[in-house]
Amino acid sequence: MKSIAIIYGSSTENTKRAAEKIAERLSEYSPSLIDIYDGDEEAFHSNDVLILGISTWGVKDLQDDWSDFYHKLEKMDLTGKTVALFGLGDSFIYPDSFVDAMGILYETVAEKGATLVGEVSPDGYQFDYSRALKNGIFVGLPLDEDNDADLTNGRIEKWVESLKKHLD
Asked: Looking at the DSSP assignment, which residues form a beta bridge with residue 116?
């Protein structure tokens, strides 16, 4: 079984709660749950699968802890790693930059050689533009706790099930 780390940055606890829900649904894989605030690179090197959670702040800004860590990520070689992304955003107040941070993270991780999994259809989401939308599909799981909190559990459950084929 592949080793899994769920690595997140959270300013308002929403991304942390989403990470915990994902970990709970992956409990049979015994994932590690890691706050990027600690700045520890080891999880990136010692795990086969990385599930990265990030929120978008304002217009196209990364969550603070990810912003602080980003220079380390840009120097990593992620060849051979499987990476899935989830991102939190506000599609009502920021419809023109919905989950952009997830798109920024995607671009960097892809450039570093990772195999990305976990794409999600934009059907059912209301937004105008997202940097996380590539070729008409989200590069990971978008969540909107401000406007669609009632959809979060179902979206996470469906997404985690789609990831399981990449975890054995």
From this structure: 83
Each residue's pLDDT tens digit, 123-150: 999 999 999 999 999 999 999 999 999 9
Give the pLDDT confidence of 143-162 residue by residue, as tens digits: 999 999 999 999 999 999 99
Give me the amino acid identity at 3: S
8 A C-beta contact, residue 63 and residue 99: no
Q: What is the pTM of this model?
A: 0.96
* Per-residue pLDDT band at 69 (split at 50, 70, 90): very high
Distances (CA, A) of 85 to 24, 93, 127, 140: 16, 22, 19, 5
CB of 22 closer than 8 Å to CB of 86: yes
Q: Which residues of 33-47 are buried (b: 16+ CB within 10 A; e: fewer)?
A: bbebbeeeeebbeeb
For residue 134, what are the β-bridge partners? 137
**Cβ neighbourhood burial of 95 (10 Å; 0-12, 13-18, 19+):** middle
38, 45, 113, 163 from 15: Cα distances, Å: 15, 22, 25, 18
